[in-house]
Structure formats: C-alpha cells, structure tokens
C-alpha cells in the first residue's frame, strides 16, 4: 500500500469515526438517568421484613408453564363465551341480557385477541416455556356443542334461561381458572391479568344472577 | 315545549362552540420539546395545547410490565410519579425542565401515590414476600404483605421509608382525607376489591382508614374499618363458591375522590357508584348508590366545582383491550356524567374519546382531574394509549372535547396495558404519566384557561379535590377600621406623596415574609378597583420593587394601593398614597378649603391611630423582652 493510499485510508477512517460520533451525538436522545438517582430505602424500624430472603415461591421474571397454560385455556374459554353471547343479540328477550351479551362478546373477543398476541410474542421470542398443552379433557365450565346448538334454535325467555344457565357456570369456571393460576408462582403481569378477568367475570355473574331471579318460569 | 327544548340544546352547544373556536383560533404548531425522547412515535396534538417537556421512565426495562408508571401526586416543587417498581421524585420548579431527583426502588404495584408535605404514601396491591423494598412478588395464597408504605421525602434525593401499614386486602388506590378538626393528622382511605381467594383477604373488602400523625408518621395505623356494602347486597353463604371465591363481587371500591370542602366523596366501586358524606371522616355515610347496566367497571370519579355533577369513568376490560373503536360504541368504556340530586344520582350524558384507536392499542376511560376554569366543568383525563383528552362537561348532556395529546400505536399490541395512566393540572401545566414512555408536561395555551393556569394548587393530591377560589377575580375589600388597617400597612410605596397630576408612576415593594414563596400577586389601585401589575413573589416571600402607572387624573386625596397574593389571600398589604393639595396660595377660596380640609383629617386620623397602635405594640414588646 502506498503512503498516499495509507494516508487516504487513515483519513477515511478518521472521517468515519468523526461522522459516527456526530451521528451518535445527534441521536442519543434524552440524557441517560444518572445511576445516582436510584435509591433503595431500608425498611422502617419494627417492620415485618425480618423474614429473610424471598421464599422459593417468589414470582418469576419470565412467563411460566402455568402462565402459558392459563392464557391458552382462557383463550378457548373466552371463545365459547363469545359464541354464545353473539347469539343473544337476535334471540334474547330480556334487554339486560342483550346488553350484557353484547358487552361480553366485544370484551372477551378483544381479550382473546390480546391473549393470542401475547402467546405469539412469547413463542416468537422463545420466552414461552414448554409446548402447547392438550385440551382433550373437558374444560371447567365448558359450554358444550349441544348447548350452543340448542341456543341457536331457541328465542325469547327460553333463550334467556339457557343463556344464564350456561353462562353462570362458565364464568365461575373462569374465576376458578384465574384463582388456580394466582395460587402458583408466575409472571406478575399475568397475575394482574388473571385478577382482572376474575373480577370482571364475577361481576357479570352477579348481574346474571339478578336477571335470573326475575326471569319468567318455563 | 319543542322550542324550549331546542333553546336548551342550543345554548350549551353555542358556548361550547365559542370555547372550541377560541381554542382553534389559537391553534399554533405544537412542536415537540427539544428533549422529546427517542420515541419516533410522534403524537397528534390538538389545538391550544403545547407539549412542554418529556422525560423517560427511569425504571423502564423494555416492555416489561413490572416497571410501568402509574399515578401522580404533587408537593410544592416536586412531582411524585408512582411505578410498579417504586416511585420517581421530579423537581418541577421549572415545568419545562423536570429534573429527576431520585428513583426510589421499592417494588409492589400499582404504586398509587399521594403526598402530604414531606410524606409520600404508596399503595401496594400485589402480594409481596414482606414489607421491605427488597421484597419479591409471591402468590397471594403464600404468606405475604400488602398495604400502604409511607416515605419521608424531606431530602428528596434520599427518601426514607418510615412506615409500612398492612391492610387486609392490600391497597389498590388510596385517598387522603384531611381531619377537619386538626392539621396535625390526615386520614387515608384505602380502597381494595380483592375477590377473596387470597390468604389474608376474606372477600369482604371493607373501607379501611389509616390515621397518619404528620409529626410521627411511624405511628400510622388502621383506625377504622367500614363496610360500604353492608346491606341486602352483602354476602350470604350461598354466594360462596368452591375454592373460596365470593361471587357477590362488589365488596370494595376501586377508587375514591374526596371533596373535603363539601364534606363529600364519590366512591367508584366496580359494580356500583356511591356518593358518601365524609362530614365525619372516620364514619363516612353512604348517601346515594347507583348502578347502571351500561357501566361495567366504576373506576374513578371527578366532581365539578359546585359538587352538583360528577363524572365517573368506566374502565371496561381493565385496560387490557381497546374499547375506543366503533365496535364498542359511544357508551362503553366511557365517561358518564351524573347530576347530584337530592333524591339520587341522575345520569345526564356520556362522553367517549372521539378519535378511534387502533386495535393494537389499549384504550378506555382512566384517571383525570378537574381543570379549574371558573364557571365551567372542564376535566383533563387519560385514556391509556388513547392519550390525553381535555373535555368540557359544562353541559353534562353534551360534553365536548377541547383538545388532546395522542401517540400512535407501538406497531404491535403491548402485552397487558400501556399508555397514559393519568393526567392532572398543576400550577398551570398538565402532567401526564405514561406507563412506558415516562412523563409528559403539557400546557393549555388558550386564554380561556388563563384563570385555570394561574391557579396555584400547591400540594395537590388529585383524589382530594380542593375547593378552588379564584380570589384574584374580585377586588380586595380594604378594612375601614384603623386598627385593622394598621397591621396591614406593610407595603412600601415610593414616592409616598404626589402632586396632583394627569397620571403618575409609583414603585411598590414588600419585605421578606409578606407573601407566600413564589405566589402570584396583584397590585391593586383601589380608587378604580383595577390591577396595576401582576407579580411573582420571591422565594423569601418578598416583592421586588415594581413600577406601576397610576390612572389619572390624580386629584388631592389619599388613596389605597393594595397587594394581594393568590395563596396568602385574604391577607392584604396596604399603602396609602397621598396626593397633596396644591400650594395654599393657589387655593384662596374658602369653600374648597373646607371640603379639601376634610380629606387630610381623614388621612391623619387613621395614621395617628396606627402610629399610636404601633407605639403601644412596640412598648409592650420592649416590656416583654425585658421581663
């Protein structure tokens, strides 16, 4: 390599470094947080925290097999509720059932979408442990195919009774599924999701039981 | 009848249109602040809204939901921003340049925060291995701690953890309620709504009340417990299902907003909305209770100034989905305005974010606060990834969005929840807490918000609504009694005596300690009841020499100049300006002399009285200091 070319190469390298510095200077965004800003206060005197290090049951940073099983099962569970609720719009007689069913189908379809997207992201990033679980066994509170078929054929008060009779145990099962998940370690964010589902569905059970109490007898 | 209805409909629309037109006429390009973060997701910003500053969430770890921001509280120049991993203390003395003073690492969601003086309260509603800041999250069926943590932020760079108060079902949110009988303590209403499968929580979620002695916060403890649902809707044995869960699910509240000046609170309790009397803060009474088939999840509430209307937010889907789409319609996951009538809460109207959001976003009505615009009911409210919306509920039947701040989606659906948790007005700016992105500072630039922006709500806890008094809008009333005046005559005016003139310039100033630090104050010219100048008090409470032009013509007489601060009101600082009579040789006439003679007597008498009073005071002080 000639001296001339070596000099050119050196100049080019310097230029690249300078441009690189300039670019990084322009795009570094907001100042990084100075590490001194972080503080961890010690517990107050007389606190309950003399229990030593966290128990072996501490929640994990990553999704666990229990998280995956819960989300997978809840997607299927939601899909059943949506299928039954969508029938209510044309078939139910009680206006509160119509309104509840509309909201259930919208909300649970959107939640199922969010859970599917969660599953895909966790699978794609390799964060989802294990393989998909088998769902051969009957699901807790499952709305059977025959119930759905019957619901598609009845109207009015008969539909209302069938709707409440199927949806209440179905929702209670969702609450149990959430509570089973909450009883074991897992990703805390999935715990929050499970709590939200249990809360929302138990509230709807209240409403369905109130409607049931005033439905005309068969 | 028909015409009447049209007129009733037309008026609010017209006023709303005026306000909207005002806002629109002032719409300027709203450039991003220089330090607007690395995010390429440029927000859409509505008219009359300026994006003043952005600061990244210091806790953020990618898309990990255990490091998201939650609610906000304010104390003096500091903003406390809750986080599922602790809380941040920001110095907001300059709202355009918030500075992170400390990031307190102390995990436990959801980190709902309040601040009283140097104390910060933090709600923990996740079952933790213990009450320390090293605690790990554990299943709710394990031995665990949840409740309220209390920190002392006297040194905001190094907050001290002073007390941990365990509550039965954790603390999803909490609300500071002052003790009307004592400034030495506050009460904290703890809201929780667990279902009952956890180890410590039976499924009943009583309203637990913590007493915090402000001088001894380490002695904070639960002093009261009250079941707001102790009636026909309460649990029966038949409501228990296998596994321990209770199905009667409204047993506790999600959030409470207190309005202590009106002795009222609204409680948003999942399936029910309650109006409470808090006249005795240790024994709240349910005044009214409402349920609405259209409302899925009563999340929070905001009073108007007169406490005649309340807006409730419905957090349908708990923030995990997008309800701001045509499919969900205009009344699901929305705001609902209710009129407070003697015989019940009467639904008056609903508001839903008018801008449809992508299904990759999470959007539902969330937390917000009253924007103190006199004679109107304007709120700023968060809608998660739907951003911030400023809404005029003055006519609750026809609410109108005035402006907004709304980022686009992330390009994918965030796990769980995301977006802006809450937004509140404080000292003329809007502070918005974005779960992942951080802190946004906004400002309403329309003159319609001048009075709201001027309001100094130092130490605001948004869930404890202050009674706003826009004191600067009315001229001060100067006491006529000399004794009363004497103590107020602290204002220095130069020159103190003037010759009659068409107009004149004076310079006024106040010594340290006269005003509240940093407050806004007006210099009033009492003869015309007009404001000569508006100033900002120095940190030591003094007012620097301020020059003002007096409106003329100035005839002989003695006139009051008054300085009144917005927060130190009704305290006044008074000076008497004397316009001397023309020289005697210029006024030989007897008649005007008689009438002119009266005025200086009127000046001298109070002056004499004041002098005598001061002399007496000084004498007494001397005597006391000697003894």
Characteristic terms for this protein:
heterodimer, A: 218 residues, mainly alpha, Ferritin, 1% strand, elongated, B: 627 residues, mainly beta, Immunoglobulin-like, five-stranded antiparallel beta sheet, five-stranded mixed beta sheet, 37 strands, disordered N terminus
Arithmetic mean of pLDDT of chain B: 87
Class derived from helix and strand content of chain B: mainly beta
H/E topology pattern of chain A = HEHHHHH
The total of beta strands of chain B comes to 37
Order of neighbouring strands in the sheet with most strands of chain B: 1-26-25-24-23
How would you describe this structure to a colleague?
The complex is a heterodimer of chains A (218) and B (627). Chain A has 218 residues and is mainly α. Chain A has a domain at 65-214: Ferritin, core subunit, four-helix bundle (Ferritin, Up-down Bundle), CATH 1.20.1260. In chain A, 66% of the residues lie in helices and 1% in strands. Chain B contains 4 helices and 37 strands. In chain B, the strands form 9 sheets. Chain B has a 5-stranded antiparallel beta sheet. In chain B, strands 31-37-36-33-34 form a 5-stranded mixed beta sheet. Chain B has a 4-stranded antiparallel beta sheet with strand order 2-29-28-27, with no helix packed on it. In chain B, a hairpin with a 4-residue loop joins strand 33 and strand 34 (530-536). Strand 1 (38-39) of chain A pairs parallel with strand 6 of chain B, so a sheet runs across the interface.
């Amino acid at each position: 390599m000639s001296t001339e070319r070596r000099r050119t190469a050196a100049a080019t390298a310097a230029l690249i470094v300078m441009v690189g510095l300039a670019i990084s200077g322009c795009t570094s965004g907001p100042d990084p947080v100075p590490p001194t800003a972080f503080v961890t206060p010690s517990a107050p005197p007389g606190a309950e925290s003399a229990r030593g290090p966290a128990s072996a049951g501490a929640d994990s940073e990553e999704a666990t097999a229990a998280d995956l099983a819960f989300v997978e099962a809840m997607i299927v569970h939601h899909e059943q509720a949506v299928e039954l609720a969508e029938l209510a719009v044309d078939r139910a007689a009680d206006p509160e059932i119509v309104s509840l069913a509309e909201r259930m189908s919208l909300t649970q379809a959107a939640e199922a979408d969010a859970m599917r997207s969660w599953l895909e992201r966790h699978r794609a990033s390799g964060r989802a442990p294990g393989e998909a679980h088998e769902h051969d066994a009957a699901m807790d509170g499952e709305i059977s195919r025959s119930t759905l078929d019957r619901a598609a054929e009845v109207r009015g008060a008969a539909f209302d009774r069938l709707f409440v009779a199927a949806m209440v145990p179905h929702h209670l099962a969702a609450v149990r599924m959430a509570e089973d998940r909450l009883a074991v370690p897992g990703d805390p964010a999935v715990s929050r999701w499970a709590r939200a589902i249990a809360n929302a569905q138990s509230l709807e059970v209240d409403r369905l039981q109130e409607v049931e109490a005033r439905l005309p007898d068969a | 009848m028909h015409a009447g209805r049209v007129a009733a409909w037309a008026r609010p629309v017209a006023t709303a249109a005026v306000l909207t037109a005002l806002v629109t006429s002032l719409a300027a390009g709203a450039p991003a602040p220089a330090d607007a973060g690395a995010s390429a997701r440029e927000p859409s910003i509505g008219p009359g809204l300026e994006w003043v500053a952005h600061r990244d969430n210091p806790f953020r770890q990618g898309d990990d939901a255990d490091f998201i921001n939650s609610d906000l509280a304010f104390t003096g120049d500091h903003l406390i921003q809750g986080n599922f991993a602790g809380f941040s203390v920001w110095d907001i003395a300059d709202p355009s340049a918030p500075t992170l003073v400390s990031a307190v690492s102390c995990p436990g969601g959801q980190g709902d925060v309040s601040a009283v003086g140097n104390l910060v309260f933090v709600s923990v509603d996740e079952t933790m291995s213990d009450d320390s800041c090293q605690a790990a999250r554990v299943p709710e069926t394990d031995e665990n701690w949840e409740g309220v943590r209390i920190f002392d932020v006297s040194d905001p760079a190094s907050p001290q953890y002073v007390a941990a108060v365990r509550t039965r079902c954790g603390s999803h949110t909490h609300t500071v309620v002052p003790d009307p009988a004592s400034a030495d303590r506050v009460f904290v209403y703890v809201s929780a709504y667990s279902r009952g499968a956890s180890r410590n929580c039976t499924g009943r979620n009583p309203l637990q009340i913590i007493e915090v002695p402000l001088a001894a916060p380490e002695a904070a403890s639960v002093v009261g417990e009250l079941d707001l649902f102790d009636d026909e809707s309460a649990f029966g044995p038949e409501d228990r299902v296998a596994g321990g869960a209770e199905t009667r699910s409204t047993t506790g509240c999600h959030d409470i907003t207190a309005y202590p000046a009106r002795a009222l609170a609204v409680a948003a309790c999942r399936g029910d909305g309650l109006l409470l009397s808090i006249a005795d803060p240790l024994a709240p009474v349910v005044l009214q209770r409402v349920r609405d088939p259209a409302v899925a999840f009563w999340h929070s509430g905001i009073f108007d100034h007169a406490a005649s209307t309340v807006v409730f937010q419905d957090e349908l889907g708990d923030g995990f989905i997008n309800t701001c789409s045509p499919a969900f319609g205009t009344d699901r996951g929305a705001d609902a305005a209710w009129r407070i009538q003697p015989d019940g809460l009467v639904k008056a109207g609903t508001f839903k974010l008018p801008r449809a959001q992508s299904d990759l976003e999470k959007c539902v009505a969330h937390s917000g606060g009253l924007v103190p615009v006199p004679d109107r009911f304007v709120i700023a409210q968060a809608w998660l990834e739907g951003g911030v919306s400023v809404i005029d509920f003055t006519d609750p039947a026809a609410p109108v969005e005035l402006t907004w701040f709304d980022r686009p989606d992330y390009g994918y659906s965030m796990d769980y929840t995301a977006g802006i948790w809450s937004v509140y007005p404080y000292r003329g700016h809007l502070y918005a807490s974005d779960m992942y992105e951080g802190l946004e500072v906004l400002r309403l630039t329309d003159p319609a918000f001048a009075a709201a922006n001027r309001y100094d709500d130092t130490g605001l806890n948004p869930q404890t609504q202050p009674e706003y008094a826009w004191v600067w809008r009315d001229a001060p009333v100067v006491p006529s009694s000399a004794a009363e005046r004497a103590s107020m005559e602290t204002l220095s005016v130069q020159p103190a005596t003037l010759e009659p003139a068409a107009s004149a310039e004076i310079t006024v100033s106040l010594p340290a300690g006269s005003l509240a630090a940093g407050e806004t104050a007006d210099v009033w010219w009492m003869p015309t009841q007009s404001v000569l100048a508006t100033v900002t008090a120095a940190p030591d409470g003094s007012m620097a020499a301020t020059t003002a032009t007096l409106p003329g013509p100035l005839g002989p007489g003695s006139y009051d100049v008054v300085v009144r601060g917005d927060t130190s009101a009704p305290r006044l600082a008074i000076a008497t300006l004397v316009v001397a009579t023309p020289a005697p040789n210029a006024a030989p006439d007897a008649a005007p002399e008689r009438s002119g003679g009266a005025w200086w007597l009127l000046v001298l008498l109070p002056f004499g009285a004041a002098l005598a009073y001061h002399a007496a005071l000084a004498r007494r002080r001397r005597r006391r200091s000697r003894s």
